[in-house]
Amino acid sequence: MAAVTPPDPSPDAEAAPAHTLPWWRRFERRSVLSLAKRLASPRGRALARRVPALGLASRRFLARIETARVPVCGAPFRLDVMRRSVSRSIYLGGRWHGDVVRMLRTHVRPGSVTADVGANVGYMAVHMGEVAGPDGTVLAFEPEPRNFAVLAENARHARWRNVIPFAAAVGERGGAIDLYLSPRDGGDHRTVATDGERRHIRVPVVSLDELAAQRRTPIHFVKMDIQGAEGAALRGAREVLARPELRGLVLEFWPDALREAGEDPEAVLGTLHAAGLRCVNHPDLDTDPRAYLSASDASHDLLFLR
Asked: What are 95-145's pLDDT values in tens digits?
């Protein structure tokens, strides 16, 4: 996702904490990860089988790396660093999409019910949960089993225990859907086949409208990052979007991924506009979306407020 500049937060808004690591810590973690990747490679595992002492040390070392934890929002946060993913970015750099974190921590309010659609391992969900506080709730959706297992663990350790993980995708209506797994990136699984390299699994899918009706509660804020499936998810959230209780939404807007999913990017923006939401960090999207779309197909993190 490309970096964007959010509007200046209000003076009393809680600022996002700085998670950037010092250079020496980043060097240390890169060195540790490099060693772990070598030990986990076929050559490293073959060597470990031939040398029992090395094998024992290797297994213990890899077990620690595969369950690495870092402090996030005052609680231990489990990472999955052995594949390219959100976790690896957090582990190596100490942060992930600080601009989005800042938007969420500025506009989520104490006591809010929020939705993290595309939660991955729960980094954004934990930040929303800390701001929402003990009276708030975060509904965190992640359909990929490996990510979900880490998300569920992080939800158990979240500061206020207010993150509720759902092992499901979010779409237009409830049911089941194929999830096409990225062989390279744990944050790029999709509900649309984009190439022949991806195997797929069947996962549950829910709609935000159906879930809000079942829980009998409004949703106050939404973060959505689901690799081009945003159009279907927003169609399944028309009632949530239209309710005055919804204050805003942070959306990964990626025109190319939307088109690959059979969506019209301009229509996706129209859904939000019709619900009374306005893009505050790219206001030209409200006045001339075609000009914006013709200028760039890059991904941007957009902040919409009522």
From this structure: 899 999 999 999 999 999 999 999 999 999 999 999 999 999 999 999 999
The three-state DSSP-derived secondary structure of 239-254 is: HHHHCCCCCEEEEEEC
Query: Number of folded domains in the chain?
Result: 1
CATH at 112? 3.40.50.150
Coil, helix or strand at residue 70: strand
211: left (phi over 0), alpha (psi -120 to 50) or beta: alpha
The CA distance from 111 to 100, in Å, is 20
Q: What is the DSSP letter of 141?
A: E
Residue 237 lies in a domain: yes
Domain contains 132? yes
Q: Give per-residue pLDDT as tens, 145-187.
A: 999 999 999 999 999 999 999 999 999 999 999 999 998 899 9
Check: CB of residue 90 under 8 Å from CB of residue 70.
yes
Cα–Cα distance measured from residue 197 to residue 183, given in angstroms and rounded to the nearest whole number: 8
| Predicted TM-score of the model (pTM) | 0.91
Task: Evaluate if residue 17 carries a pLDDT over 80.
Answer: no
Q: Going by C-beta distance under 8 Å and a sequence separation of 6 or more, which residues neighbour residue 272?
A: 234, 241, 249, 251, 279, 304
φ, ψ of residue 171 to 5 degrees: the values are -145, -155
In the Cβ-directed half-sphere of 289, how many Cα atoms lie within 13 Å?
Answer: 15
Residue 20's SS3 state is coil
> Does the residue 87 lie in any domain?
no
CA distance 24 to 29: 9
Q: Rounded to an integer, what distance in angstroms lies between the CA atom of residue 37 and that of residue 43?
A: 11
Instruction: Decide if 78 is inside a domain.
Output: no
Tokens of 254: 């990626």
Q: What domain range is 135 assigned to? A: 97-169+207-305
